[in-house]
Amino acid sequence: QEQLQKLTNPKDSVAAKILSYNRANRQVAILCNHQRSVSKTHDQAMEKLEQKIKDKKKEVKEAEEALKHARGADKEKAQKKYDRLKEQLKKLKIARTDKDENKQIALGTSKLNYLDPRITVAWCKEHDVPLEKVFTKTHREKFRWAIDMTNSSDEKFVF
What we know:
It is built from eight helices and no strands. By secondary structure, the chain is mostly helical. The protein has a domain at 39-100. The protein starts with a helix and ends in a 7-residue tail after the last helix.
């Protein structure tokens, strides 16, 4: 909970907030020594992600050029496309950072067995992060009690 408060910037995008959540979770996992070996496919996955980022950068550049030459109603459309592509690029870069930082840490173990789910639910509620982005369907079913307990109360949950 302390790490979440320290690492989360309320002005960040949802993707950046999830990165903050994973970083806080990573601190717990390191403390509990939840290590794993780097998967065989990690380098391959990182290369794929790197290629996606390159492709997205190219798309952003093209959209920027189109925006410069657009006039009238087309300008608004081009601006929307450019903004959307910039946001997608930002998400990909955050995903790359998160994936690389997680290569030797088993976050699932600490999330499932060591973190109080009420802290996660309260954090999601406080920072407008969809719970589906943090907990899988199985986690949400397992922690239904924490979700109900935290969502039914207007007071901020502090452990």
